[in-house]
Amino acid sequence: MTTPAISIIPLPRSIEFDGNSRFELPCAPTITGGLPVSALACKQLSKDTGRQWQIADASAPATVLLTRIEETGLGREGYDLDVTDDGITIRASADAGLFYGIQTLGQLCFPNEEGALPHLRIKDSPRFTWRGMHLDVSRHFFNREFVRRYIDLLARHKLNVFHWHLTDDDGWRIELDCFPDLTERTAWRGKNEALPPSYDTGDERYGGYYSKREISDIIEYAAARNVMIVPEIDVPGHCKPVTVCYPELLCEGEISSFKSVQDVSENLLCAGRDETFAFLAEVIKEVAALFPSPYIHMGGDERPEGPWEQCPLCAHRIEAEGLENIDALQGYFMERVRTLVADQGKTMVGWNEITHGEKVDQSAIVTAWQDPEKGIEAARAGYSVIMAPAQHTYFDLAQRDDPSEPGLRWAGVVTLAKAYEWEPIPDPELAKRVLGIQGCLWSETLVDEARADYMAFPRLCALAEVAWTPAGRQSFLDFKERLVPAHMSRLDLAGVIEHGSV
Ligand code: TNX
Fold first, then answer.
1. Pocket test for ligand 1, best of 238, 297, 302 (most atoms within 8 A of CB)
2. Dihedral sign, CA of 340, 344, 349, 355?
3. CATH class as words, domain 14-124
4. Span 83-132, pLDDT tens digits
5. Which of 437, 443, 349 has the alpha carbon at shortest distance from 392?
6. Does the annotation mark 405 as catalytic?
7. Would you state the pLDDT for residue 2?
8. pLDDT for 425-468, tens place per residue?
9. Catalytic residue of the set 80, 82, 136, 168
10. What φ, ψ does residue 126 adopt, rounded to 5°?
11. 3-state DSSP assignment of residue 35
12. Which stretches of 270-401 are assigned E, i.e. beta strand?
């Protein structure tokens, strides 16, 4: 018997073929059971296969039967999928599993020239519970249609977290009733705007933001696809819009000459002023009410040196709180922020610098970005960790050595092989602290949607397989065979405008 060519990404936990028989897809396939997943499935499968999928009426036998069963032994995101002479059955214990079964079915159906599926049985469930992708919408703005397509593409790759980097020095993108100035004034940059021009967008007025209504719609769109949205409000650095609107939150003293890594001045909130925390309490309260996710990302990365070191108010805070040094002040700041998040019944996530000064409670979650060692350190210190080492997961970095290749290079070049070949749990003893992995798409160089796609794909496909497939089943060579041409044609179909090297 020859193994039929099927190209599923991410590769399922197990696939068994049953002889050489095949099941012919009818011209108008039907789905039964599993509402509301089945309605979405009909839409997606019709688009992907060019056939008219419909919800079956109960009297006729259906092409696909979706069943919720008590226990599959595969968790809430797991499913099993059977193709026999009688048709296709997908079983799962929750909608998430049914949805993922449908994604796999979609890949069995396209590309598929014969219009027939081999008899098989797939048993599948994810390796990690946190399978994320991030998007920076501040350095360049991406409209809601792009964000929806991005979420759809995440879901098709069985990724389940969208980390939405909503605020940074180059634009505030989330509408808040408590501080409407933030979007009215600093969602825009340009020659005559509150924020100066940056990242090649020149003198013209450039920017945009999402209204609360639009955000709620996107949350709903994501939830239907088993994607949780974790919003990020990045503090205390990366806060230029905040300090433009509310300069009273800046440190005292001569601070304008201090610059952040990205060469931005006056983007750091003062740790000595109580007003800073009063401001953050209101912001966090409104963000917590808007997003159903139990997590809020509060940043904590890349605090520029200088302002806190020379600020009399920060010096006073250090003394009053008995803090040892500036690192401890940073820890103090993020721990106070964590408490504000916890007051809203949520858990704070932060970039690995939140461990500086050893003040932040271990209930916070750490996104380890600088290198894998940072993740190991945080896990050893008792934090749950999301592994996002730039060397493997930063898709804003160039994907080839070629100097003409777009993208940053501060952590080297992230080839497709590097995005695929890495182990998120370098030390088995820390396994239970590693919640999962995440890719990041920072947008300094993402001048438009085509460029964003070019940087994200196909590296995102590699990330998805590292996040989902058991380590022992991963093989870069095999992945590439599934990627080209089959999966690349799916990316085209899903609207990916341009893609990077394979
Ligand atoms: C570091 S990752 C940053 C971002 C940049 C990114 C560019 C992190 C927490 N901070 O502000 O956009 O590098 O790769």
1. 302
2. positive
3. alpha beta
4. 999 999 999 999 999 999 999 999 999 999 999 999 999 999 999 999 99
5. 437
6. no
7. 52
8. 989 999 999 999 999 999 999 999 999 999 999 999 999 999 99
9. 168
10. -80, 150
11. coil
12. 295-299, 347-351, 365-368, 384-387
Q: How far apart are the C-alpha atoms of 440 and 397, rounded to whole Å? A: 10
Span from the CA of 453 to the centroid of ligand 1 (angstroms) = 18
Quick one: which atom of ligand 1 is closest to the CA of 351? 9
Atom 8, ligand 1: residue with shortest CA distance? 301
| CB 104 within 8 Å of CB 12 | yes
| Nearest atom in ligand 1 to 262's CA | 11
Q: Are strands 206-207 and 228-235 parallel, antiparallel or unpaired?
A: unpaired
Å from CA of 5 to ligand 1 middle: 40
Name the amino acid, one letter, at 391: Q
Q: Whose CA is nearest to atom 5 of ligand 1?
A: 442
Helix (H) or strand (E) holding 217: helix 212-223
Cβ(169)–Cβ(156) below 8 Å: no
CA-proximal residue: ligand 1, atom 2 (nearest) = 369
* Residues in the chain with pLDDT values less than 50: 1
CA dihedral 491, 495, 500, 502 (to 10 degrees): 10
Reduced to 3 states (helix: H, G, I; strand: E, B; else coil), residue 492 is helix
Question: Which residue among 152, 252, 282, 302 is the active-site one?
Answer: 302
Active site residue 168: yes
Residue pair 345/327 in contact by the 8 Å Cβ criterion:
no
Question: In sequence order, what are the beta bridge partners of 350?
Answer: 366
CA-wise closest residue to 65 among 108, 22, 27, 29: 29
Domain ranges of the chain: 14-124, 130-245+271-300+346-493
Ligand 1 first shell, C-beta below 6 A: 301-302, 351, 369, 394, 396, 408, 442, 444
Distance 439 CA to ligand 1 centre (A): 12
Class of domain 130-245+271-300+346-493: alpha beta
Q: Rounded distance, CA 493 to CA 487, Å?
A: 10
CA distances from 179 to 185, 242, 254, 288 (A): 11, 10, 27, 15
Q: Which atom of ligand 1 is nearest to the CA of 408?
A: 14
For the chain, the average pLDDT equals: 96
| H or E segment and range at residue 55 | strand 54-55
Specify the long-range contacts of residues 478-483, CB closer than 8 Å, at least 24 apart: 478/11, 479/9, 479/11, 479/420, 480/416, 481/7, 482/7, 482/8, 482/9, 482/11, 483/7, 483/9, 483/458
The closest residue, in CA terms, to atom 12 on ligand 1 is: 442
Name the pTM for this structure: 0.97
Closest-CA residue, ligand 1 atom 4, reads 442
pLDDT for 1 equals 44
